[in-house]
Amino acid sequence: MCYELNASAYYLNYGGAAGGVLYIVEVEQIQTGDKIKVYSSEHKDDFSLSWKSSDILSIKNETPKYNEYRNIELNVNTDIYEESGAACRSLLLKEKFENCYYAEDIKVPLIYKLLGF
């Protein structure tokens, strides 16, 4: 069965005056109302969404001036992107998604690397 999908983006402020902003992208199956978060990343200067096909969502989130790019194309049925990699380390989320992506340039604490995360 093929479902019509709708992607929505919103942001969350965190940390008060010294905090930051996270972009969250959520995909909803229109017929069922089921929603799933597929993308989470720090705010960059240029953000946009576009569908490449019925299940491939292209997300642009970048600040070229500072060489910061969090752009990705996700198959919303199988992929998730969470900037810090926390979703990729989550046993619950590993079972829900075939592919988990995170920002390569974010430093993972040594203890996580030693544990195989």
What do you see in this structure?
The radius of gyration is 15 Å and the shape is globular. The protein has helices at 86-89, 91-96, 110-114; strands at residues 5-14, 20-29, 35-42, 46-51, 56-63, 68-69, 72-75, 79-82, 99-101. The protein has three helices and nine strands, in the order E-E-E-E-E-E-E-E-H-H-E-H. A five-stranded mixed sheet has the order 1-2-3-8-9. Strands 4, 5, 6 and 7 form a four-stranded antiparallel sheet that branches. The protein is 13% helix and 47% strand. It is mainly beta.
Secondary-structure map with pairings?
Layout: E1 5-14, E2 20-29, E3 35-42, E4 46-51, E5 56-63, E6 68-69, E7 72-75, E8 79-82, H1 86-89, H2 91-96, E9 99-101, H3 110-114
Parallel strand pairs: 3-8, 8-9
Antiparallel strand pairs: 1-2, 2-3, 4-5, 5-6, 5-7
- What is the H-and-E element order? EEEEEEEEHHEH
N-C termini distance: 36 Å
What is the CA-atom radius of gyration, in angstroms?
15 Å
Largest sheet: 5 strands, mixed
Structural class: mainly beta
Shape descriptor reads globular
